[in-house]
Amino acid sequence: MNRFQNFKNGLLKDNPVFSLYLGICSTLAITTSVNNGLGMGVAVICVLIMSNVIISLVRNITPEEIRIPVYIVIIATLVKIIQMLIEAYAPALNTSLGVFIPLIVVNCIILGRAEAFASKHGVLDSALDGLGMGLGYTLAVTVMSLIREVLSTGMINLVNPFDETQILLNIRIIPDDYVISMFSSPVGAFVTFAILAALVSVYKNHADQKAAAKEVK
Amino acid sequence: MGELVTLLVTSVLINNVILNQFLGMCPFMGVSKKRSSAIGMGVAVMFVIVVAAIVTYGLYYLALVPLGLEFMDLITFILVIASLVQLTEMFIKKTSPSLYKSLGVYLPLITTNCVVLNVCLVNISNHYDFAQMLVYSFGTPLGFALVLYIFSTIRERLDLCDVPKSFIGNPIALIVAAIMSMAFSGLAGIV
User: Fold this and answer.
1) ipTM above 0.90 for this complex
2) pLDDT single digits (tens) A123-135
3) Inter-chain contact B20–A193, Cβ cutoff 8 Å?
4) Is B163 on the interface with A (CB under 8 A)?
5) B187 and chain A: CB distance < 8 Å anywhere?
6) Hey, where are the domains in chain A?
């Protein structure tokens, strides 16, 4: 039950992006299309689960003073592996995500979870935490890229990342004349993020109030 | 020479790291509440980036390429950056304890500041020569410091404003960033 609770918190209430403000650099930059958002999300989930598991395995043999360099080297190695895999099997995704794949190394979510969770908990718990936080990140980037892509191009376009010619989904929602191209520019990224963060904060306030009311009763 | 000036203006104003490439958002949100800490952070980041760029550039072309170890770039770069940040931290702690206190946790976090790693990686991937590398590695953190400073002056005033409850803190700061980004995109025509 407790484990499930941890997992659920990562998705909404403690969402790494909208509520803890971790990893916003990549969230703002790559959310121009749902394709990119999903690709980045999956890459982050993979790195996060593996890094949490490895760091949790070595947590008892890592000296306290040098733990951060140790974590960073572990994370950098994992990211490099993922980057090489993406480069080989999904070259289109590699071009569109660009420098943001190697920059997963310095994504605060990963080091943050290593420090705050994996270095103190068992392997299974850490893997679950990685999955929860990774899904929370993926959810955040997907929602954000969905809003931005629909508003800026008026359509949703999904292609198979391993084979660009295979189109999975291509539907138009807003007619071509009514799209707001601002949403594909940096301005749109900041505005969308601000509004979503404000919404999550409304939800959090509401949940806190409900909890407080329960306690009074 | 003209090319280098263009590169400088582009990296400071047009392709601004924060407003256009969204890098370094964590310190942008975290240490922009006071002007003095914004300046301290800007200078610290500038120092780390210039030194890190020179060291990683040298390492890449003098050690990794001759040995055929290009795929080790991420790991070596991040280690160089981490040790440089440690050095800067020790230096600031000795020379200015008050600045050290106001920067707080964000000082060691320069390690995970994406601007630093990004500059090192872009220097390599864009095949810059030594002069271009120096200009780019100086211009990028200059743009970072500039925007951080402007943003902190706005934020000091923002504290006195009446903001809707759910927008207090980071959401309203992001709206400000959006407007700044709009203003900076107007500069795109100057080069």
Assistant:
1) no
2) 888 888 888 888 9
3) no
4) no
5) no
6) 13-216
